[in-house]
Amino acid sequence: MEVTLDHFTIGISSVEAAISDHGLNPNLDGRPIGIVLWSDDTDYDYERLTAAEGAKSLSAPRDFLSDLRIAWVADPDGNPIQIVQHRRRKDN
Fold first, then answer.
1. I need a surface site. Which of 3, 41, 67, 72 has the fewest CB within 10 A?
2. What digits encode the pLDDT tens for the residues 2-54?
3. Long-range contact set of residues 12-17: C-beta below 8 Å, sequence gap at least 24
């Protein structure tokens, strides 16, 4: 699900999607959601969050589906946060 307000969009996904679609195994201790943050540059934001901010990496940046670039980090409480951007669609 995505919620948009004033050009700011937050996406919320199920933990089941994080497990089946992305191979994550989050320990949620009763908090079964993942947060999706849209980015203009997934690789830059992932690097900034894991290096400068000390966020734990859950999954390095990678292409997903035909038009997305995604990465996963953990917030300070261990909750999974997905960083995602649109990229040019790969034609088959």
1. 3
2. 777 777 777 777 777 778 887 877 666 665 566 788 899 999 999 999 998 88
3. 12/36, 13/82, 15/80
Question: Could you tell me the pTM of the whole model?
Answer: 0.68
**Distance of CA 14 to CAs 17, 36, 60, Å?**
5, 10, 20
Answer yes or no: is 18 within a domain: yes
The sheet that has 56-64: what strands, in order across it?
A: 2-5, 8-14, 33-38, 80-86, 68-74, 56-64
Q: Output the pLDDT for position 52.
A: 82
Residue 23 lies in a domain: yes
Asked if residue 77 is part of any domain, the answer here is no
Q: Which of 75, 62, 58 is nearest to 24 (CA)?
A: 58
Does the residue 35 lie in any domain? no
Task: Read off the amino acid at residue 27.
Answer: N
- Residue 61 tokens read as 């940046």
SS3 36: strand
